[in-house]
Amino acid sequence: MLEVKGIKFQYEKGRPFDIPDFQLSSGEQLLILGKSGSGKTTILNILGGLLKPLSGDVRLGDTLINQLSGAKLDKFRGKHIGIVFQKPHILSPLTVEENLSLANFFSGADGKRNQELLKELGIADKRRAKVNTLSEGEAQRVSIARALANQPDLILADEPTASLDDHNAEIVIKLLQDQAKKYNAALIIVTHDQRVKDHIVNQITIGALS
Ligand SMILES: Nc1ncnc2c1ncn2[C@@H]1O[C@H](COP(=O)(O)OP(=O)(O)OP(=O)(O)O)[C@@H](O)[C@H]1O
């Protein structure tokens, strides 16, 4: 379902990144490990079509993401890829519900699942709360809900547990795994958080070329 092949990437004046080839089927999970600065966010952004590789292909289903651009890419991403960013990209002055509706709007989805999703993530009682009144753990769950709102085929999570205590980190990992399983989505988590290591057997480690 997801195939990553021959990816080369380098920021202007930066060093080249060593990005291994890999494949992932629907419902499979992958952990990408690497120390700080090794390029984890970079690779996630390439997989999500937010950065263009210099060469190589990222294929999701029948679509080569790296060959899409502009509105087509935005629409494809909105429909098929859910990204949980390292720092929650949720709009703080809006309510939890409004943040999900916005995600639905951008991809043309109907939002029928929103209420159920909030329930599953344990934040249904906060649906009318403004995001800037939530705790960090709750805000992280809203950002997960937003990433999952359109039932993506591929879920990408960038350090989703970085700012969470052990208990909440465990909850967030389980939520991501349960949701991915429920909707048969592929799940990729990038992290340097050792606590996540025991939860996903399929792992690759990346490092920058020197
Ligand atoms: N826009 C950019 N322009 C130039 N260099 C960048 C840019 N973004 C990141 N880098 C550099 O690329 C390298 C990899 O960054 P990246 O954020 O992908 O690492 P990471 O593994 O996610 O790190 P962390 O675990 O600390 O979040 C770093 O050396 C960083 O300074």
Automatic annotation (TrEMBL):
<dbReference type="InterPro" id="IPR015854">
    <property type="entry name" value="ABC_transpr_LolD-like"/>
</dbReference>
<keyword id="KW-0547">Nucleotide-binding</keyword>
<keyword id="KW-0813">Transport</keyword>
<keyword id="KW-0067">ATP-binding</keyword>
<dbReference type="InterPro" id="IPR003593">
    <property type="entry name" value="AAA+_ATPase"/>
</dbReference>
<feature type="domain" description="ABC transporter">
    <location>
        <begin position="2"/>
        <end position="209"/>
    </location>
</feature>
<dbReference type="Pfam" id="PF00005">
    <property type="entry name" value="ABC_tran"/>
</dbReference>
<protein>
    <submittedName>
        <fullName>ABC transporter ATP-binding protein</fullName>
    </submittedName>
</protein>
<dbReference type="InterPro" id="IPR003439">
    <property type="entry name" value="ABC_transporter-like_ATP-bd"/>
</dbReference>
<dbReference type="InterPro" id="IPR027417">
    <property type="entry name" value="P-loop_NTPase"/>
</dbReference>
<dbReference type="GO" id="GO:0005524">
    <property type="term" value="F:ATP binding"/>
</dbReference>
<dbReference type="InterPro" id="IPR017911">
    <property type="entry name" value="MacB-like_ATP-bd"/>
</dbReference>
